[in-house]
Amino acid sequence: MRRARRFAATVAALALLLTGAGCTADDGPGDGVIRLRFQSLAWQKESVDANKELVREWNAAHPGIQVDYVQGSWDSVHDQLLTSFEGGEAPDIVHDASDDLADFAYGGYLADLRPLLPERLRAGIPEHSWRSTTFGDGVYGVPFLQEPRMIMANRKLLAEAGVRIPTAGRPWSWEEFRAVARDLTARMGEGRYAVAWPLKEPVSVSLNLSLSAGGRLFHRAPDGKVALRFEGGDAVVPGTVRAMIDTDRTASRATLGSGGSDTLPGFFGGKYAMVPLGFSYRQQIVQQAPEGFDWIVLPAPAGAGGLAQGVSPQTLSIAEDSPHKKEAAAFLDFFLRPSNQVRLALGDWMLPTSTAALADPALHTEEFGWATGAAVARELRPAPAQSVRGYPEWKDKVATPAFQEYYSGAIDAAELRRRLVEDGNRVLARYQRD
Length: 434
What we know:
434 residues, 18 helices, 41% helix
Protein backbone atom coordinates (compact mmCIF):
# COMPACT_ATOMS: atom_id res chain seq x y z
CA MET A 1 0.00 0.00 0.00
CA ARG A 2 1.26 3.38 -0.94
CA ARG A 3 2.64 5.46 1.94
CA ALA A 4 2.13 9.18 1.52
CA ARG A 5 4.49 11.39 3.49
CA ARG A 6 2.70 14.65 3.17
CA PHE A 7 1.69 16.23 6.45
CA ALA A 8 -1.36 18.01 5.07
CA ALA A 9 -4.72 16.29 5.41
CA THR A 10 -6.29 14.93 2.30
CA VAL A 11 -9.89 15.52 1.37
CA ALA A 12 -10.63 11.91 2.31
CA ALA A 13 -9.03 12.42 5.72
CA LEU A 14 -11.13 15.48 6.43
CA ALA A 15 -14.24 13.67 5.34
CA LEU A 16 -13.54 10.84 7.75
CA LEU A 17 -12.89 13.23 10.60
CA LEU A 18 -16.05 15.19 9.90
CA THR A 19 -18.09 12.01 9.99
CA GLY A 20 -16.72 11.17 13.41
CA ALA A 21 -13.95 8.68 12.73
CA GLY A 22 -12.02 9.76 15.82
CA CYS A 23 -12.19 8.22 19.28
CA THR A 24 -12.95 10.09 22.47
CA ALA A 25 -13.09 8.81 26.01
CA ASP A 26 -16.85 8.90 26.61
CA ASP A 27 -18.70 10.01 23.52
CA GLY A 28 -21.70 7.75 24.07
CA PRO A 29 -25.15 8.75 25.32
CA GLY A 30 -24.18 8.47 28.99
CA ASP A 31 -25.50 4.91 29.34
CA GLY A 32 -22.27 3.49 30.75
CA VAL A 33 -21.49 1.59 27.58
CA ILE A 34 -17.88 1.67 26.42
CA ARG A 35 -17.76 2.55 22.73
CA LEU A 36 -14.78 1.68 20.56
CA ARG A 37 -14.23 2.88 17.03
CA PHE A 38 -12.72 0.41 14.60
CA GLN A 39 -11.51 1.90 11.32
CA SER A 40 -11.33 -0.84 8.72
CA LEU A 41 -9.66 -0.65 5.33
CA ALA A 42 -11.53 -3.64 3.91
CA TRP A 43 -12.78 -2.70 0.45
CA GLN A 44 -13.88 -5.79 -1.44
CA LYS A 45 -17.52 -6.67 -0.76
CA GLU A 46 -16.71 -10.10 0.64
CA SER A 47 -14.09 -8.59 2.94
CA VAL A 48 -16.32 -5.72 4.13
CA ASP A 49 -19.12 -8.20 4.80
CA ALA A 50 -16.81 -10.44 6.85
CA ASN A 51 -15.53 -7.50 8.92
CA LYS A 52 -19.00 -6.12 9.61
CA GLU A 53 -20.36 -9.55 10.49
CA LEU A 54 -17.63 -10.07 13.08
CA VAL A 55 -18.33 -6.65 14.58
CA ARG A 56 -22.03 -7.54 14.85
CA GLU A 57 -21.18 -10.82 16.57
CA TRP A 58 -18.96 -9.04 19.08
CA ASN A 59 -21.59 -6.39 19.82
CA ALA A 60 -24.31 -9.02 20.34
CA ALA A 61 -22.13 -10.85 22.88
CA HIS A 62 -20.76 -7.74 24.65
CA PRO A 63 -23.55 -5.24 25.36
CA GLY A 64 -21.25 -3.25 27.64
CA ILE A 65 -18.50 -2.82 25.03
CA GLN A 66 -19.83 -1.76 21.66
CA VAL A 67 -17.69 -1.43 18.53
CA ASP A 68 -18.58 1.07 15.81
CA TYR A 69 -17.36 0.11 12.34
CA VAL A 70 -15.83 3.03 10.42
CA GLN A 71 -14.87 2.66 6.75
CA GLY A 72 -11.41 3.91 5.80
CA SER A 73 -9.47 3.81 2.53
CA TRP A 74 -6.06 2.43 1.61
CA ASP A 75 -5.61 5.37 -0.77
CA SER A 76 -5.54 7.98 2.00
CA VAL A 77 -4.88 6.06 5.21
CA HIS A 78 -1.44 7.47 6.06
CA ASP A 79 -2.48 11.12 5.79
CA GLN A 80 -5.80 10.47 7.46
CA LEU A 81 -4.26 8.67 10.42
CA LEU A 82 -1.52 11.25 10.85
CA THR A 83 -4.11 14.02 10.94
CA SER A 84 -6.31 12.16 13.41
CA PHE A 85 -3.38 11.23 15.66
CA GLU A 86 -2.10 14.79 15.79
CA GLY A 87 -5.61 16.08 16.43
CA GLY A 88 -6.35 13.58 19.20
CA GLU A 89 -9.17 12.07 17.14
CA ALA A 90 -7.76 8.69 16.13
CA PRO A 91 -9.92 5.57 16.06
CA ASP A 92 -9.35 3.22 18.98
CA ILE A 93 -8.55 0.31 16.65
CA VAL A 94 -6.47 1.01 13.57
CA HIS A 95 -6.31 -1.15 10.44
CA ASP A 96 -3.16 -0.58 8.38
CA ALA A 97 -0.18 -2.43 6.88
CA SER A 98 3.09 -3.18 8.64
CA ASP A 99 5.16 -1.07 6.24
CA ASP A 100 3.13 1.99 7.25
CA LEU A 101 3.59 1.65 11.01
CA ALA A 102 7.17 2.83 11.62
CA ASP A 103 6.48 6.57 11.73
CA PHE A 104 3.41 6.06 13.93
CA ALA A 105 5.21 3.67 16.28
CA TYR A 106 8.32 5.82 16.70
CA GLY A 107 6.11 8.90 16.94
CA GLY A 108 4.31 7.56 19.99
CA TYR A 109 0.90 7.34 18.33
CA LEU A 110 0.40 3.58 18.75
CA ALA A 111 0.16 1.57 21.97
CA ASP A 112 2.76 -1.06 22.75
CA LEU A 113 0.68 -4.25 22.61
CA ARG A 114 2.99 -6.45 24.67
CA PRO A 115 1.18 -5.92 28.01
CA LEU A 116 -2.26 -5.94 26.36
CA LEU A 117 -2.48 -9.03 24.18
CA PRO A 118 -3.31 -12.46 25.65
CA GLU A 119 -0.64 -15.12 25.32
CA ARG A 120 -2.93 -17.28 23.18
CA LEU A 121 -3.05 -14.65 20.44
CA ARG A 122 0.66 -13.96 20.71
CA ALA A 123 1.63 -17.63 20.57
CA GLY A 124 -0.67 -18.40 17.65
CA ILE A 125 1.22 -16.17 15.20
CA PRO A 126 4.83 -17.08 14.24
CA GLU A 127 7.61 -14.92 15.61
CA HIS A 128 8.82 -13.92 12.16
CA SER A 129 5.41 -12.33 11.52
CA TRP A 130 5.62 -10.39 14.79
CA ARG A 131 8.95 -8.96 13.63
CA SER A 132 7.03 -7.05 10.97
CA THR A 133 5.29 -4.99 13.68
CA THR A 134 8.18 -4.72 16.14
CA PHE A 135 9.88 -1.34 16.31
CA GLY A 136 12.58 -0.82 18.89
CA ASP A 137 11.51 -2.77 21.97
CA GLY A 138 7.76 -2.57 21.37
CA VAL A 139 5.10 -4.37 19.32
CA TYR A 140 2.70 -1.95 17.71
CA GLY A 141 0.36 -4.06 15.62
CA VAL A 142 -1.02 -7.56 15.19
CA PRO A 143 -0.10 -8.94 11.74
CA PHE A 144 -3.09 -10.95 10.55
CA LEU A 145 -3.32 -11.15 6.72
CA GLN A 146 -0.47 -11.59 4.26
CA GLU A 147 -0.15 -11.75 0.50
CA PRO A 148 2.65 -13.48 -1.41
CA ARG A 149 3.38 -12.69 -5.02
CA MET A 150 2.48 -15.67 -7.19
CA ILE A 151 2.49 -16.41 -10.92
CA MET A 152 -0.93 -16.45 -12.56
CA ALA A 153 -0.55 -18.64 -15.64
CA ASN A 154 -2.56 -19.68 -18.68
CA ARG A 155 -2.74 -23.44 -18.20
CA LYS A 156 -3.51 -24.13 -21.87
CA LEU A 157 -0.46 -22.25 -23.16
CA LEU A 158 1.84 -23.98 -20.67
CA ALA A 159 0.46 -27.38 -21.66
CA GLU A 160 0.90 -26.67 -25.37
CA ALA A 161 4.54 -25.74 -24.78
CA GLY A 162 5.10 -28.92 -22.76
CA VAL A 163 6.86 -27.08 -19.92
CA ARG A 164 7.18 -28.51 -16.44
CA ILE A 165 4.55 -27.17 -14.08
CA PRO A 166 6.26 -26.02 -10.87
CA THR A 167 4.95 -26.75 -7.38
CA ALA A 168 5.82 -25.39 -3.96
CA GLY A 169 7.78 -28.60 -3.38
CA ARG A 170 9.60 -28.32 -6.69
CA PRO A 171 9.51 -24.72 -7.91
CA TRP A 172 11.26 -23.30 -10.94
CA SER A 173 14.65 -21.74 -10.34
CA TRP A 174 15.09 -18.23 -11.68
CA GLU A 175 17.20 -19.71 -14.51
CA GLU A 176 14.51 -22.26 -15.35
CA PHE A 177 11.82 -19.58 -15.28
CA ARG A 178 13.80 -17.63 -17.85
CA ALA A 179 14.23 -20.76 -20.03
CA VAL A 180 10.52 -21.60 -19.80
CA ALA A 181 9.71 -18.05 -20.88
CA ARG A 182 11.88 -18.48 -23.97
CA ASP A 183 10.07 -21.70 -24.91
CA LEU A 184 6.66 -20.14 -24.40
CA THR A 185 7.40 -16.98 -26.34
CA ALA A 186 8.78 -18.95 -29.28
CA ARG A 187 5.52 -20.89 -29.53
CA MET A 188 3.17 -17.96 -28.92
CA GLY A 189 4.09 -15.94 -31.99
CA GLU A 190 4.70 -12.31 -32.90
CA GLY A 191 3.46 -9.67 -30.45
CA ARG A 192 2.83 -12.17 -27.66
CA TYR A 193 5.00 -12.72 -24.60
CA ALA A 194 5.51 -15.37 -21.97
CA VAL A 195 5.47 -12.81 -19.15
CA ALA A 196 3.98 -9.44 -18.31
CA TRP A 197 5.76 -7.73 -15.39
CA PRO A 198 3.48 -5.00 -13.97
CA LEU A 199 6.13 -2.75 -12.43
CA LYS A 200 4.34 0.52 -11.78
CA GLU A 201 5.68 0.20 -8.22
CA PRO A 202 8.95 -1.69 -8.78
CA VAL A 203 10.60 -1.43 -5.37
CA SER A 204 8.50 -3.83 -3.32
CA VAL A 205 8.44 -6.39 -6.16
CA SER A 206 12.21 -6.25 -6.59
CA LEU A 207 13.09 -6.35 -2.89
CA ASN A 208 10.51 -8.88 -1.75
CA LEU A 209 11.22 -11.42 -4.49
CA SER A 210 14.98 -10.98 -3.99
CA LEU A 211 14.75 -12.83 -0.68
CA SER A 212 14.30 -16.00 -2.75
CA ALA A 213 17.72 -15.41 -4.31
CA GLY A 214 19.39 -14.65 -0.99
CA GLY A 215 19.25 -10.87 -1.41
CA ARG A 216 18.61 -8.57 1.52
CA LEU A 217 20.07 -5.14 0.55
CA PHE A 218 19.45 -3.65 4.03
CA HIS A 219 22.00 -4.77 6.63
CA ARG A 220 21.57 -3.91 10.30
CA ALA A 221 24.67 -3.60 12.50
CA PRO A 222 24.76 -4.59 16.20
CA ASP A 223 24.25 -0.93 17.16
CA GLY A 224 20.95 -0.93 15.26
CA LYS A 225 22.11 1.25 12.37
CA VAL A 226 21.29 0.13 8.84
CA ALA A 227 23.50 0.25 5.76
CA LEU A 228 22.72 -0.63 2.16
CA ARG A 229 24.85 -3.22 0.34
CA PHE A 230 23.96 -4.54 -3.13
CA GLU A 231 25.36 -8.06 -3.32
CA GLY A 232 25.02 -11.03 -5.65
CA GLY A 233 21.62 -12.14 -4.40
CA ASP A 234 20.22 -8.64 -4.77
CA ALA A 235 21.05 -8.64 -8.49
CA VAL A 236 19.28 -11.89 -9.45
CA VAL A 237 15.68 -10.70 -9.70
CA PRO A 238 16.25 -7.31 -11.34
CA GLY A 239 18.83 -8.88 -13.65
CA THR A 240 16.38 -11.61 -14.67
CA VAL A 241 13.60 -9.12 -15.38
CA ARG A 242 15.91 -6.88 -17.40
CA ALA A 243 17.23 -9.86 -19.43
CA MET A 244 13.70 -11.06 -20.17
CA ILE A 245 12.81 -7.63 -21.53
CA ASP A 246 16.00 -6.66 -23.38
CA THR A 247 17.88 -9.84 -24.25
CA ASP A 248 15.33 -12.64 -24.47
CA ARG A 249 12.36 -10.49 -25.53
CA THR A 250 10.12 -12.81 -23.50
CA ALA A 251 8.59 -10.08 -21.32
CA SER A 252 6.58 -7.14 -22.56
CA ARG A 253 8.22 -3.72 -22.26
CA ALA A 254 4.78 -2.11 -22.50
CA THR A 255 3.68 -3.35 -19.06
CA LEU A 256 6.57 -1.83 -17.10
CA GLY A 257 4.48 1.16 -16.07
CA SER A 258 1.33 -0.87 -15.49
CA GLY A 259 -0.47 -1.90 -12.35
CA GLY A 260 -1.52 -5.49 -11.87
CA SER A 261 -5.11 -5.00 -13.02
CA ASP A 262 -3.90 -3.38 -16.25
CA THR A 263 -2.34 -6.65 -17.38
CA LEU A 264 -5.44 -8.81 -16.96
CA PRO A 265 -7.11 -8.08 -20.35
CA GLY A 266 -3.91 -9.14 -22.13
CA PHE A 267 -3.66 -12.20 -19.90
CA PHE A 268 -7.24 -13.22 -20.71
CA GLY A 269 -6.66 -12.57 -24.41
CA GLY A 270 -3.58 -14.78 -24.63
CA LYS A 271 -1.12 -11.94 -25.16
CA TYR A 272 0.70 -12.92 -21.96
CA ALA A 273 1.03 -16.48 -20.70
CA MET A 274 2.09 -15.56 -17.16
CA VAL A 275 1.71 -12.54 -14.89
CA PRO A 276 3.40 -12.26 -11.44
CA LEU A 277 0.69 -10.79 -9.19
CA GLY A 278 -0.33 -10.57 -5.57
CA PHE A 279 -2.32 -13.57 -4.34
CA SER A 280 -5.54 -11.56 -3.96
CA TYR A 281 -5.69 -10.83 -7.68
CA ARG A 282 -7.25 -14.26 -8.03
CA GLN A 283 -10.56 -12.69 -7.12
CA GLN A 284 -10.40 -10.31 -10.07
CA ILE A 285 -9.49 -13.19 -12.36
CA VAL A 286 -12.48 -15.21 -11.16
CA GLN A 287 -14.79 -12.24 -11.63
CA GLN A 288 -13.45 -10.96 -14.95
CA ALA A 289 -12.05 -13.90 -16.90
CA PRO A 290 -14.04 -14.97 -19.98
CA GLU A 291 -15.98 -18.21 -19.72
CA GLY A 292 -13.75 -21.21 -20.20
CA PHE A 293 -10.49 -19.42 -19.44
CA ASP A 294 -8.21 -22.05 -17.89
CA TRP A 295 -5.68 -20.66 -15.44
CA ILE A 296 -3.46 -21.89 -12.66
CA VAL A 297 -1.59 -20.39 -9.69
CA LEU A 298 2.14 -21.14 -9.58
CA PRO A 299 4.76 -20.33 -6.91
CA ALA A 300 7.29 -17.62 -7.70
CA PRO A 301 10.74 -18.95 -8.70
CA ALA A 302 13.21 -20.00 -6.03
CA GLY A 303 16.93 -19.43 -5.64
CA ALA A 304 19.50 -19.64 -2.88
CA GLY A 305 16.83 -18.51 -0.41
CA GLY A 306 14.30 -21.11 -1.51
CA LEU A 307 10.72 -19.83 -1.68
CA ALA A 308 11.42 -17.07 0.85
CA GLN A 309 9.56 -13.90 0.00
CA GLY A 310 9.06 -10.58 1.72
CA VAL A 311 5.57 -9.41 2.69
CA SER A 312 4.06 -6.49 4.59
CA PRO A 313 1.10 -8.00 6.45
CA GLN A 314 -2.11 -6.17 7.14
CA THR A 315 -2.18 -5.14 10.79
CA LEU A 316 -4.49 -4.09 13.61
CA SER A 317 -3.17 -1.61 16.18
CA ILE A 318 -4.52 0.32 19.17
CA ALA A 319 -4.16 4.07 19.41
CA GLU A 320 -1.99 5.25 22.29
CA ASP A 321 -4.61 7.91 23.12
CA SER A 322 -7.44 5.38 23.40
CA PRO A 323 -8.86 5.41 26.94
CA HIS A 324 -10.04 1.82 26.50
CA LYS A 325 -6.93 -0.11 25.51
CA LYS A 326 -7.83 -3.27 27.46
CA GLU A 327 -11.26 -3.42 25.88
CA ALA A 328 -9.78 -2.81 22.44
CA ALA A 329 -7.32 -5.66 23.02
CA ALA A 330 -10.19 -7.94 24.03
CA PHE A 331 -11.91 -7.13 20.74
CA LEU A 332 -8.71 -7.91 18.82
CA ASP A 333 -8.47 -11.24 20.63
CA PHE A 334 -12.00 -12.09 19.48
CA PHE A 335 -11.64 -10.65 15.97
CA LEU A 336 -8.40 -12.55 15.32
CA ARG A 337 -9.35 -15.99 16.63
CA PRO A 338 -8.12 -18.61 14.16
CA SER A 339 -11.62 -19.36 12.87
CA ASN A 340 -12.23 -15.64 12.36
CA GLN A 341 -8.90 -15.17 10.60
CA VAL A 342 -10.00 -17.85 8.15
CA ARG A 343 -13.19 -15.88 7.45
CA LEU A 344 -11.19 -12.69 6.95
CA ALA A 345 -8.67 -14.44 4.71
CA LEU A 346 -11.39 -15.92 2.50
CA GLY A 347 -13.09 -12.53 2.28
CA ASP A 348 -9.87 -10.79 1.24
CA TRP A 349 -8.51 -13.68 -0.86
CA MET A 350 -5.33 -13.56 1.21
CA LEU A 351 -3.63 -15.83 3.75
CA PRO A 352 -3.78 -15.64 7.56
CA THR A 353 -0.68 -15.36 9.72
CA SER A 354 -2.14 -17.59 12.43
CA THR A 355 -0.63 -21.08 12.29
CA ALA A 356 -3.95 -22.69 13.24
CA ALA A 357 -5.91 -20.61 10.73
CA LEU A 358 -3.48 -21.42 7.93
CA ALA A 359 -4.03 -25.13 8.60
CA ASP A 360 -7.79 -24.84 8.01
CA PRO A 361 -8.95 -27.14 5.17
CA ALA A 362 -10.77 -24.25 3.50
CA LEU A 363 -7.38 -22.74 2.65
CA HIS A 364 -5.95 -25.96 1.19
CA THR A 365 -8.31 -26.61 -1.68
CA GLU A 366 -6.93 -26.85 -5.21
CA GLU A 367 -9.63 -24.50 -6.50
CA PHE A 368 -8.26 -21.03 -7.28
CA GLY A 369 -4.80 -22.00 -6.06
CA TRP A 370 -5.53 -21.84 -2.33
CA ALA A 371 -3.36 -24.87 -1.60
CA THR A 372 -0.38 -23.47 -3.50
CA GLY A 373 -0.64 -20.17 -1.64
CA ALA A 374 -0.91 -21.91 1.73
CA ALA A 375 2.22 -23.92 0.95
CA VAL A 376 4.15 -20.76 0.06
CA ALA A 377 2.88 -18.95 3.17
CA ARG A 378 5.24 -20.93 5.39
CA GLU A 379 8.18 -19.23 3.67
CA LEU A 380 6.95 -15.63 3.96
CA ARG A 381 9.09 -13.18 5.91
CA PRO A 382 8.84 -9.48 6.77
CA ALA A 383 9.64 -7.20 3.84
CA PRO A 384 13.37 -6.35 4.02
CA ALA A 385 13.16 -2.65 4.82
CA GLN A 386 9.83 -1.91 6.44
CA SER A 387 11.28 -1.18 9.90
CA VAL A 388 14.08 1.02 8.54
CA ARG A 389 13.71 4.69 9.33
CA GLY A 390 14.06 6.73 6.20
CA TYR A 391 12.83 3.92 3.98
CA PRO A 392 9.89 5.93 2.55
CA GLU A 393 12.21 8.72 1.38
CA TRP A 394 14.72 6.21 0.00
CA LYS A 395 11.94 4.39 -1.82
CA ASP A 396 10.33 7.53 -3.30
CA LYS A 397 13.40 9.60 -4.14
CA VAL A 398 16.07 6.99 -4.84
CA ALA A 399 14.86 3.45 -5.42
CA THR A 400 11.70 3.96 -7.47
CA PRO A 401 13.28 6.14 -10.17
CA ALA A 402 16.42 3.99 -10.19
CA PHE A 403 14.51 0.74 -10.73
CA GLN A 404 12.23 2.34 -13.30
CA GLU A 405 15.19 3.60 -15.31
CA TYR A 406 17.01 0.28 -15.00
CA TYR A 407 14.07 -1.83 -16.18
CA SER A 408 13.43 0.56 -19.08
CA GLY A 409 17.08 0.29 -20.17
CA ALA A 410 18.03 3.89 -19.38
CA ILE A 411 20.76 2.91 -16.90
CA ASP A 412 22.92 -0.19 -16.46
CA ALA A 413 23.37 -2.49 -13.46
CA ALA A 414 26.39 -0.58 -12.15
CA GLU A 415 24.45 2.68 -12.05
CA LEU A 416 21.49 0.95 -10.40
CA ARG A 417 23.82 -0.36 -7.71
CA ARG A 418 25.43 3.06 -7.21
CA ARG A 419 22.13 4.84 -6.81
CA LEU A 420 20.58 2.30 -4.48
CA VAL A 421 23.64 2.11 -2.25
CA GLU A 422 25.55 5.40 -2.38
CA ASP A 423 22.57 7.72 -2.77
CA GLY A 424 20.51 5.51 -0.48
CA ASN A 425 23.02 5.46 2.37
CA ARG A 426 23.13 9.25 2.31
CA VAL A 427 19.36 9.31 2.82
CA LEU A 428 19.41 6.75 5.62
CA ALA A 429 22.27 8.53 7.40
CA ARG A 430 20.05 11.54 8.06
CA TYR A 431 17.65 9.33 10.01
CA GLN A 432 20.32 7.50 12.00
CA ARG A 433 22.33 10.29 13.51
CA ASP A 434 22.85 9.99 17.23
